[in-house]
Amino acid sequence: MYGWQVTEPGNDIGRALRRTAMFVPRPGPGELLVAVDACGVCRTDLHIVSGELPPHRRHVVPGHEIVGHVLELGAGAEGFRPGDRVGAAWLRETCGQCRYCRRGAENLCPGSHYTGWDADGGYADCATVRADFAYVLPDGYSDAELAPLLCAGIIGYRALRRAELPQGGRLGIYGFGASAHLTAQVALAQGAAVHVMTRSEQARELALKLGAASAGGAYDAPPEPLDAAVLFAPVGDLVPVALRALARGGTLAVAGIYLSEIPALDYDRDLFQERTVRSVTANTRADGRDLLAFAAKHPLKVAVSPYPMAQAGEALADLAADRVNCAAVLLP
Fold first, then answer.
1. What b-and-e string marks burial along 138-167, b requiring 16 or more CB atoms within 10 Å of the CB?
2. Domain named Enoyl reductase (ER): which ranges (predicted)?
């Protein structure tokens, strides 16, 4: 089979990422061997390829928004049969024994491992996934539409929860890419008024088409105070901007795995009156199941830019240059 490996992490994607012939992986105990039918291109992949996230495995195959079908079951794998459609996401495995796993916060497990970072991911013809970390996927979506749900959708869903948006509240979204355009639809379905702040004019147009109440520049003030906000853009300078847009008692959730440096916060302007800032770390399997169940009941419009698997480097370069307005997806 063929797969893309991170050989020399750095900003030159042509040098950092190489397509190479590889052996088809064998499913270990409790694992599924999956033929990749679609793999989303996430900004986290870009951070891994560029070296902004330190490599966890030499020559790793990136990609963690995997939609495929089961080819083979490893010893003891349960819940799936050959031919079943299946999803694999960022969280690959946890220890199941630590204090965090026992209390339902497996996303904080110190022994956690991640698809496309600690183990080979979906920029390849095949991949493996633990059966107990694989997802049953909802009907009504194409493979390409499902792929972004498996990270962009799940992380946005968790970030929305972390932001504690009240029923019918006012939500601010900073940055409007793959994750944000799905999160906005979830919030709208829950009765929220959504205000989008992003530098891309095309993204602002998409936000308004999806039902946002307003769409302005990344550093613009929304037309009304916000009850909650989610920061998707990996730009630390936007943290005080978003905090100052919050009403009293509002919460800002920072959704990215990577963020540039946050400037000094002014207590009176940014945090006083019980404003809160929270990080979002990975996700639990419960987050994934809940988001996919929501998508089954509330059809989401997943805006996709398809690329052939052989053009993974081009897809990442377009993402780095902000030429992708929605969710880039690799297709075999």
1. beebebbbbbbbbbbbbbbbbbbebbebee
2. 14-324
